[in-house]
Amino acid sequence: MSEDRIVEASRRLAAALRPGDLDQTLANITAAAVEVLPDVQWSSLSVKHADGSLETVAPTHDVLRDVDAAQYELQEGPCFEAAVDTVHIVSSHLAADERFPRYAPVALEAGIRAQAGIRLFDAQHSNGALNLYSDKVGAFEDLGVLAELFAHQSAVALEYARRIDQLQEAVTARQLIGQAVGVVMERFGVDDARAFGFLTRLSNQENLKLRLVAERLLATPRDTPGG
What is the pTM (predicted TM-score) of this model? Predict the structure, then answer.
């Protein structure tokens, strides 16, 4: 692949992977895969959760939900392999790929002739892989450097999105706790320090995060202040 092509792909990726929250970033990644990577007709993300379950996220076409679900059920296919075992996997000719005898007919029926899976992240409680689908036999044979570039820039965007989500969650928690402190002050006629101490004791006694205690208290009818 020429240097000019890599530079142009990098520029387009930077423009496509705009900063945003996590859901928007995931959607941007699959949309950018279709826009930037050669021969990609459709794209999705597979996330493996801590309990081992697999979930399809941000598919660019609804047909991919069924296609991905078949791979999860069969425990076979580039989508499954990239999310569970392998960093990158390519099947340029699914019909002739002996690795996926049960999954290949499902893909072919959906019009998919070639497929690739690219691991995007390995987090503490989850793994994520980008799934690329093409109706062209021979697609993805030369992803190489471009796949690495895409994975790197996607990982940067995801990390930014995670930080944004964590910040938003922290702000929301602070607001909820502040509201709960105000409610306790009003109901029990105490100052803010005693009200916060009351919430903290509930949190410790019930082994719940302070935010959850605040949410529960705010949802409690006014005639039952202590729950």
Answer: 0.67
